[in-house]
Amino acid sequence: MVPETYYIALSAILFTIGALGVLIRRNALIIFMSVELMLNAANLAFVAFANTYEHLNGQIIVFFVIAVAAAEVAVGLALIVAIFKSKRSIDVDQMSSLKG
Amino acid sequence: MLLSEATTTGFFFLAPWIVFFPVIGLLLNIIIGGRLSERGIGWLASGASFASFVVSVLLAYSVWIGHGQSESVFLAEWMHVGNLSLDWTFRVDTLSTVMMLVVSGVGTLIHIYAIGYMHEDVRFKNDPGRYRRFFVFLNLFIAMMMILVSGDSYLMLFVGWEGVGLCSFLLIGFWYDMDTLGRPSWANSNAGNKAFITNRIGDFGFLIAGFLMFWYLGSFQFDQVFAAAPELAHAHPEIVVAITLFMLIGVAGKSAQIPLYVWLPDAMAGPTPVSALIHAATMVTAGVYLVTRSAPLYTLVPESQYVVAIVGAATALFAATIAVGQYDIKKVLAYSTISQLGFMVAAVGMGAYVAGMFHLITHAFFKALLFLSAGSVILGLERGHHHLAHHGDEHNDHHEEVFDPGDMRNMGGLRKTMSTTFWLYIVGTLALAGTFPFAGFWSKDEILLDAKLHYPTVYWMLTIAAFFTAFYMGRQIWMVFFGQPRHEAAAHAQESPKIMTIPLMVLAALSLLGGGLNLPFKGFHTMGHWLAYTLSESEALPLDLQVAGVSTALVLLAILVSWLIYGRKPLKAGQPDPLKKPLGFIFTGMENKWFVDEGYQAAIIKPFKKLSYFLADVVDWRFWHDWFHEKVIAGTYIWLSNIALNKYADQRGIDAFANGLGTVTKNLSASMRRVQNGFVRSYALSVLLGVVLILGYLLLK
Q: Which of B340, B362, B332 lies closest to B476 in space, CA to CA?
């Protein structure tokens, strides 16, 4: 049996990679995938804890997150497509029209 | 209320209409008078006054069937403060109805006369637009006079008292922008001011009397004052003396007694109907009415009565001497009025209230007659002068000449050209002089008889005054109507129209028959009985042949002397008065009104003006304004606001704080705006850092 600490550590590593991806990368698609990575890191932590404490709440939350992430993907990809249509690029640094 | 019911219980409910009718008249004239003809305006005003007269007759009838019972008719609440309660209540009793009848009756006749008089006057003065205003003022006067005589309390009386003073002022200054000869000047308005200010002094006395009355007797209402007065007179007689003497100051102002009579001769600046109505027949008798009304107070303090009697007698004599030396036809009558008012005041001072009121009524008749006839004479001369100016091309010199139509030295021989006026004037003169059987004879005789019984000094003063009265009236008749015309205008004088002479005929009839109101024979003291209901005084003296004989002899003597001086050898044009030489400085004194006006100027007005200048210039302007206000208050304030508040508190305190706040915000925001770089990544980084910080804190706590 793999101790839960491993799962948590993996989750933290995945989350950190995701966070760094969001912060460093400019490609909107990559950022988006990094966001997904963070979400799934959280999911992993949830199921790990649910297993440890033998409590179903964590797994239920994971289902919620997966459902919300699916919706988010739909909205997010639509946004990216819309941005690409107007800018011919999906470089997030060019999305600075709202800067004061 | 049904008429049949009213004839048995009285018409008292109509009392307010004695005031309302003239008010309606004046309002109608203000509102629709502009669309009426002159006749329409005049008759509307006369009708209003006549309606008031009819109501007065009905009220007198009501009092008569009520056996002289006085009646109070409540109209409106005025003010109720503490134990002061004042209402507008009409008091209808034998005394007030007598005054109402005189005011509205003589007033109506004068209104009608004025229709004709003002028609010409406004044309000679070149301003027909003022015709309507005259009648508005005249109606206002009737209303105010009615308030005065019908008031149920001293304060209501005072309202009317002030109201008639206002009307007097307005009408004296009716031609406010010219003098009596029509030249541009402020003489007439100054005369109005003089009358008003002199009356203010009198009103001040009246007010003090009123305050004392309220303070010590607790009321202004006649019955309550009179009921409480005997007790006060017993405990503090000096208070009652003070009240009555202060009231005498008011009387002296309104009824033109020494020392406040000086306004009345100047009041002749008003149009002649005004002189007749306000300054002879009605308003100036208000003082006599006041003393009569306050009879219960005066009876309590013989000292005050004595003072009143002496003031009246002195005025009667003093004014009569001045009248001898006057040349203006209206000025003679003005001083005669002062003198006759002196008779009345002396009478009421002696407690002979009936005699005083009797003389008031007869005097209203014959003095109104005389004044209006004098007005007719003046207009007659104006017409003659006008006629010359337009038709007599050979008399070109008259065009520019200043002509005084009121100067008796310009008259003479008017008996032929104005015969109606002449006969009317004769009736008035005989009545004023007190010739048997004219009205003046009976009323003056009653006063003299009372004086003889009570105050011999007053009797002699009044008898001498009566001699002078006959003399100056004789002088006037000889100068105006006899001899040869001393001026072209007098030679061409024209008689006045019927609308002016018919009211005069009515007044002449009243002057002739007015004595019948109170004949000194048993059973004929009609007025004495009538007033006795109110005054509780019913001294019905029989005719004293000695008094009547002495006064008649003196009157005849005076007329004879005046004939010897003025009638036998009529005055020539430009000739000085024949009395000037033999009497010397005495006549100069009479001519110049004994220099009383000049004396007042020197003794009161000049010092008063100097004091005013001192107060205005030195005290008010230089001390208060220049030094105290400008230097002390404004200077301190400016120093305080400029240096202390502006420089230190405001600029270095509040401004610095406010500006500092702005600067800090600006600097802060300048550094903060750099965070807003528009890169989503950097925002995400700050979110991450924030989350890490919060989580770190939560974990490591």
A: B332
Separation CA B16–CA B689 (nearest Å):
97
Name the residue of chain B whose CA is nearest to A24's CA.
B681
Secondary structure of B602-657 as H, E, C letters: HHHHHHHHHHHHHHHHHHHHHHHHHHHHHHHHHHHHHHHHHHHHHHHHHHHHHHHH
Q: How far apart are CA B381 and CA B20, in angstroms?
A: 38
Q: Compute the distance between CA of residue B111 and CA of residue B658 in angstroms, rounded to an integer.
A: 78
Angle between helices B237-254 and B154-172 (to 10 degrees): 20
> Taking CA atoms, what residue in B is nearest to A97?
B678
Asked if A85 reaches chain B (Cβ–Cβ under 8 Å), the answer is: no
The owner of tokens 């030249």 is: B183
CB A99 to CB B685 under 8 A?
Answer: no
φ/ψ of residue B210, rounded to 5:
-65, -40
A98 vs B678, B681, B684: nearest CB: B678
A96 contacts B678? CB cut-off 8 A: yes
Q: What is the mean pLDDT of chain B?
A: 89
In Å, how far is A55's CA from the nearest CA of chain B? 23
Distance CA B476, CA B319 (A): 16
Determine the Cα–Cα distance for residues B267 and B278; give it in Å rounded to an integer: 10
Rounded to whole angstroms, what are the CA distances from B83 to B468, B517, B524?
Answer: 51, 42, 45
Contacts of B697 (CB under 8 A, 6+ apart): none
3-state SS, residue B88: strand
Asked if B139 contacts B45 with a C-beta cutoff of 8 angstroms, the reply is: yes
Helix spans in B236-301 (H):
237-254, 263-266, 272-276, 286-293, 295-298
Residues 6 or more apart in contact with residue B134 via CB below 8 angstroms = B114, B118, B122, B171, B174, B271
**B640 is written with which tokens?**
């305080």
Q: Is B522 on the interface with A (CB under 8 A)?
A: no
Q: What is the pLDDT of residue B537?
A: 64
Bridge partners (DSSP) of residue B88 are B76
Tens digits of residue pLDDT in B174-233: 999 888 888 888 999 999 999 999 999 999 999 999 999 999 998 899 999 999 999 998
Which string of b and e fits B160-185 if b means at least 16 CB within 10 Å?
Answer: bbbbbbebbbbbbbbbbebbbebeee
- Give A99's contacts in chain B (Cβ within 8 Å): 676-678
CB contact under 8 A, B681 and A24: yes
Q: Return d(Cα B427, Cα B376) in angstroms, integer.
A: 15
- CATH fold of A4-90 reads Helix Hairpins (1.10.287)
Q: How far is CA B409 from CA B179, B222, B245, B463, B574, in A?
A: 19, 50, 42, 29, 8
Cβ-Cβ contacts under 8 Å for B682 (sequence gap 6 or more): B675
Give contacts of B672 with chain A, Cβ < 8 Å.
none
Domain spans, chain A: 4-90
Hey, are the CB atoms on B679 and A96 less than 8 Å from each other? yes
> Would an 8 Å CB–CB cutoff place B677 in contact with chain A?
yes
**Alpha-carbon distances of B524 from B431, B539, B547, rounded to whole Å:** 20, 13, 19
Q: Does residue B393 register a pLDDT over 80?
A: no
Using DSSP's 3-state secondary structure scheme, residue B85 falls into strand
Nearest to B685 among A23, A93, A95 (CB): A23
Contact B688 A19 (CB under 8 A): yes
Residue B241's identity, in one-letter code, is V
Query: In the 8-state DSSP scheme, what is residue B128?
Result: G
B79: part of which helix (H) or strand (E)?
Answer: strand B71-81
- Find the mean pLDDT for residues B269-289: 92
When pLDDT is cut at 50, 70 and 90, the band that residue A99 belongs to is low
Distance CA B591, CA B673 (A): 103
Tell me the CA distances in angstroms from B670 to B193, B623, B656, B659, B681, one per residue in order: 78, 60, 21, 16, 21
Mean pLDDT confidence for B574-603: 84
